Amino acid sequence: MKRNLRSWCLALALVTARPSVLAAFVLSSCMPADQQPSRTAYEVLRAHTPELMKIKGVVGTGEGEVKGYPAVVVLVSRRTSEVNRLVPKRLEGYPVEVRVVGDVRPMDRREETPPPEKK
């Protein structure tokens, strides 16, 4: 029975486009009751970004997908033991994916490529 439910959830996820509401429904129907998100990934991200940004090496956060489901993405300059220890594996039911992006710095306005000329 459990396998049939997972197969149905996977098939439904593959057939549907990316609407957030439907994705949240599919996600919640496939997850155990104790892991079902009560808020959208965007709301969870807004609530937890300030605490995530306090972790040394975290340079940003965002929304993403893990195996076709909504996820919280944590961008880090490099993976360290502190990042591994302090960044949670899940936030309010959503998986957390850590992506190494290297050092991030503000771009000097003089380095910007000028916009293309309008014809």
Task: Provide a concise account of the structure shown.
The chain is built from 4 helices and 4 strands, in the order H-H-H-E-E-H-E-E.
Tell me the number of helical segments per DSSP (H or I, 4 or more residues long): 4
Sequence stretches where pLDDT stays below 50 over 5 or more residues: 1-29
- Please estimate the helix content: 25-40%
Distance between the termini: 61 Å
Provide the gyration radius in Å: 18 Å
Shape: globular
Quick one: biggest sheet? 4 strands, mixed
Mean pLDDT over the full residue set: 78
Portion in beta strands: 15-25%
- What's the oligomerization state? single chain
Number of self-contained structural domains: 1
- Strand tally is 4
Main-sheet strand order equals 1-2-4-3
- The helix-strand sequence is HHHEEHEE
- Structural class designation: alpha+beta
Chart the SSEs and their pairings:
Blueprint: H1 2-15, H2 20-30, H3 41-53, E1 58-66, E2 69-76, H4 81-86, E3 90-91, E4 94-100
